[in-house]
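Run log, item B.
One chain of 295 residues. Sequence copied directly from the ordering sheet:
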Amino acid sequence: MKLEAHAKLNLTLEVLGKRHDGYHNLVSVLQTIDLHDEIELESSDGISLNCDVPELAGGDNLVVKSAQALRDVAGTSDGVHITLRKRIPAAGGLGGGSADAAAVLEGLNRLWKAGLDARELSSLALTIGSDVPYLLRGGTALVQGRGEDVTPLPKADLEWFVLLSPHIRPEHLKNKTGALFSRLTAGNHTRGTLSHKLAGRIRGGGDVPPQFFFNAFDQVADEAFPGMDEYRTGFRGVGAAEVILSGAGPTLYAVADSRELGVAWQLLLQSRGWNATLTRAWWPDERSENSGGDS
């Protein structure tokens, strides 16, 4: 079984405050993009993983945890060998690990004939990671709570994005999300109004200007990731008026009005030796024919 695991962008990410269970309540509008990892599932005796990024091939990879969790819930003795080809930058705020986990949960639910319905699969996904329930489907959605409340939205009027993946020293990416949350104060908390306004605009079929985008972590990212301000300034320098952080970063992105403009931005950023990628919005009805509908 061949699968595609698509990256996501946070069009908005608002932090409402800390919950009693230690997590934070969030409100976010998310969009999947065509940048994706490739996964193959093959029936096997045990659960094993082969990844083209060796440091990600251990048992703590979320795809292994997902397979183990589904096997426990389904009460099956079936196994799987997972082949993972990474295209989404790791620890970049693009949900790569969560997308891989979601694809494996959905794929193994079919491969093992586990019979979990959408609600059961989403509940299991939440135990793996906060972004996993949304990434079971992808597309455009309003996500609330710690990730369990996913409301699909109509297709947003968006197409081209340019991603800029800053080179950040590994020690600054360790426990990245927790470190950024710890930098937020009550002054960084909002009420979710920006996200709900953007969701309403999308529901109404209106345009989706980047001026409506927002990420609470933008306010602390430059402190958390030394050198981040240089990337942000350089991105703006090629003509991107609105440069937005995705997730907990450090990936930055901007909306391009056309493919031609996106290519120009990408080439200008690459000329500085930076890792820039042109990508476009992706929705579930655009599944690759090569995946046989299994992505």
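Observations after the first pass:
- Confidence is low (pLDDT under 50) at residues 288-295.
- The two ends are 9 Å apart (CA to CA).
Flagged for discussion on Thursday.
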